[in-house]
Amino acid sequence: MSNRLAKLHSQLAAKGLDAIIISQDENRRYLSGFTGSAGFLLISPQRAILATDFRYVEQAQAQAPDFEVVKIQGEMPKWFPRLASELDAQKLGFEGKDISFSTYKELTDALSSAKKGISLVPTDGLVESLRAVKDKEELKLIEKAAALADAALDEILPQVRPGISEKELAWEIESFMRRNSSEPVPFELIVASGPNSALPHARPTDKIIHNGEPVVIDIGAKVGGYTSDITRTICLGNSDNVFNRIYDIVLGAQLTALATLQTGMTGEQVDRLARTVIEQAGYKDNFGHGLGHGVGLATHEEPRLGTGSADILAEGMAFTIEPGIYISGWGGVRIEDMAVLEEGKVRLLTKSRKMWRP
Ligand code: ZN
Ligand code: ZN
């Protein structure tokens, strides 16, 4: 944790800030180790304060030894001016995407009536950009979460027979992961069959899975707060030429991106590696989402791999590569793996079999 704080200190200096208040859940956990669902970090080069209410004080002291734990009570404007003035900061950063406009107004009013000469400065993505690069401890947890999702797919998919519903299959996978020590799954698992699989974010329904139709299965486990995210597309019974063709294009797009992406490329450039394959096969309009996203304490975090993304891929970043083709009325194929950049190259974190035939 002290490494992470040191990195934040240099970010503060670079932005001309004397201190920052962290309110976003994953950022609070990332910097302090505190897993409780309520609390604020106030961080300056000299001080690291974790402010939380009576429910969490003991837990905070145990989990965040690098922080002074302060008990707070009531709404933020009540306690904030006093704590902020303890930091001896003039320019105090806050997370612009996490503090609502009305809270911001209340805080500035409280600060100006307290006459401490403190001004609030919005920041954007300061801690998020630190989180994009994973350290060893984080990678270990991500690898465990990935292995758990792999194990669920490798165990459950070979047993799937036509006649099971999407919801039942989703539950089989989820309960396998929970029985094998996953924390509550990080997102509602997707099992989408036939025409339902044309919706990239379909929710499992009571629809029965039949032979010969695409089934998109997008799942993730959680270990120590870190998530995994993997998608496989299968077809029970014999697949037809349409499925085989679409599958091969998507797989080709994914393998191309994995084989050619490099440290230093932008998210847009990496996206283009796969998108070109899909476009040249004639499915330009059927790949309507980005190629991938960072994965860590949140399922979707930096970097973003997609059109318009200037995020630069760096050593230690962990992210997904998930091209797809979706055809309304027929269905879809998506293949998603997680990878980490090491020594300029990609190392796959998810390893479950890509093509499953009965
Ligand atoms: Zn996914
Ligand atoms: Zn994903």
Fold and architecture overview:
This protein is an alpha+beta fold and 358 residues long. It has 2 domains: 2-130, Creatine Amidinohydrolase, Chain A, domain 1 (3-Layer(aba) Sandwich), CATH 3.40.350.10; 136-348, Creatine Amidinohydrolase (Alpha-Beta Complex), CATH 3.90.230. The protein has 10 helices and 18 strands. A 6-stranded mixed beta sheet has the order 4-3-2-1-5-6, with helices on both faces. Strands 7-8-11 form a 3-stranded antiparallel beta sheet, covered by helices on one side. Strands 14-17-18 form a 3-stranded antiparallel beta sheet. A hairpin with a 3-residue loop joins strand 15 (324-327) and strand 16 (331-334). Helix 7 crosses helix 8 (166-179). The radius of gyration is 23 Å and the shape is elongated. The protein starts with a helix and ends in a 10-residue tail after the last strand. It binds zinc ion (ZN) (2 copies).
User: Which outline best applies?
Assistant: elongated
Bound small molecules, which ones? zinc ion
Rounded to an integer in angstroms, the radius of gyration calculated over CA atoms is 23 Å
Counting helices, strands and paired strands, the structural category is: alpha+beta
The CATH architecture of the largest domain can be named as Alpha-Beta Complex
Rounded to the nearest angstrom, the distance between the terminal CA atoms is: 47 Å
